[in-house]
Amino acid sequence: MTAMSRRPLPAPKADFIGLEGKVHLATGGEPPLLVQHRAAFEAFAADKARGYDGYWTHWKVDDEVRKQVARLMCLEPEDIALLGNASDAIMAVVSGFDWQAGDRVVVPELDYASGRYAFASLKRQGVEVVLVPARDWELSEDDVLAACDGGARLVYVSQVNALTGQHVDLEKLSAGLSEKGAALMVDASHAFGAVPLRGDLSDFLVTACYKFALGIHEGILGWNRRRQPDFAPPGAGWSSADPGATAADYVVKPDARRFEYGNAGHLGAYLLRESLTYLESFGIEAIAAHNRALAERLIDGLAALGLEVMTPAGAAKHAGNVCFVCPDQGPDPEAVMRRAAEEDILIWADNGRVRVSAHLFTSQEDVERLLERLPAFLR
To answer: Which of 133-155 are b and which e, b meaning 16 or more Cβ less than 10 Å from the residue's Cβ?
Structure first.
């Protein structure tokens, strides 16, 4: 589809299940599914009923999805593994290194638990975990690079921070870490489907599928084989390897399927194929501009209400998520979320803050509605 034929934004709410009449600003937690997903499910069910031929049709759909994902990640289809969730993808990377006592890994202190916990699990092998603190909620890329000065083998960072909504400068991190010899694993769970991805800038790109990508609870691992040509997971399964010289031997597959020990999530692939086709009909660049413009309005509006906004201003520093801290003298974040839901305004509250998410179906009117009613929710 050419830029001239892209669909206009915002996307119609009628394209989504259960969205009519709602102000849905909770995509950073859970988005609605597409109406067209019903047809995708029926297609999966029909193929599943066809026995052998239907089973291998599932794998053909998987391969179609690999092509779609690779295009959006600036990678090749052979770089894409379809896994159970983003945490599985993170551990596939972490477990593939030959760790030695004294090795160092680096992770932002405010980054998501999946990465922090995966790195913390390395302590039992004598690996040092270096936490990079934020400054007034904002992570400095220079601080991440400085944390690697003593030598680091692997850095984990989210492209869009789940807690604060900050979008990091991946080009700066990638260039700096290449000079230091550290591998980079980027978690794109809050970026996939919301803003462009750059898998070519990292060694590994992991993501969940159920947020801005509009899929379900599965994960993807993008393995940049140009930067890590010999990387391999420690285990194997019938799907990740080919027969070896004897029944007790195997040869690991040459592409990212080496990370898929068994069947991929075939139903998830049918749904994600529909989701990515839908997103691409609008264009990721256009969606990003739409999301960032609404997020800027949210940042300005929340600040005008006197709230402590955790998300940095400036389009390059955020994607679709905007987060704020509730005043000490008012209701807690969950109570604010519940009050909003009573008026069919969906936001997300956890980890001691409120997150508001703009996506392709979010309108200017949705944002203004929240900003208008929020003072009442905060009382």
So the answer is: ebeebbbebeebbebbeeebbbb
